[in-house]
Design a protein that fits this description.
This protein is mainly α. 45% of the residues lie in helices and 5% in strands. It contains 5 helices and 2 strands.
């Protein structure tokens, strides 16, 4: 089992092969369209979830960003249960933030309490965000989040 949060020295297998490079170049030509689509989806999440007190959203309007993920912060005790509810509904989520001091490469560099980073890591959930995601799919994700907090009485 390889530690996905360590940074070994570069290996030849880390380089793109020709097919992967060709796909990357093709996608690069579509970058502007991809960025517009992702910005629209991020704004849609903000619009649909901004009235939920238990959900903290990124403090930005996404007009100057090229987002590759969309995250929300929820109370730490709710994070795994929310992810479980979404997963049971067929909605994939992720955990895309881990404090640097938890990476094996930085394990010995901690110089004091890192409560803000640890709290953020315990609260962050990454929601689906992909080019081609429809408004119906966006609504489905947001409705499931709303349903979770409504059932808890914390909507």
């Amino acid at each position: 089992h390889r530690d996905l949060h360590s940074f070994p020295t570069r290996r030849s297998s880390d380089l793109l092969n020709s097919v992967s490079a060709a796909v990357g170049l093709s996608q690069l030509r579509q970058l502007d369209d991809f960025t517009v689509a992702r910005r629209r989806l991020c704004a849609g999440y903000v619009q649909r979830l901004s009235d939920l007190p238990a959900v903290r959203l990124p403090a930005m309007d996404f007009t100057a960003a090229a987002p590759f993920i969309f995250w929300i912060r929820v109370p730490a005790p709710d994070r795994d249960a929310l992810r479980g509810k979404l997963g049971a509904a067929g909605i994939a989520t992720g955990l895309h933030f881990r404090p640097m001091h938890e990476f094996s490469s930085f394990a010995t560099t901690r110089r004091g309490p890192l409560a803000v980073a640890e709290t953020a890591a315990a609260e962050l959930v990454t929601l689906p965000l992909f080019v081609g995601m429809s408004d119906d799919e966006l609504d489905r994700v947001c409705d499931a989040i709303r349903g979770y907090f409504s059932a808890k009485g914390s909507e």
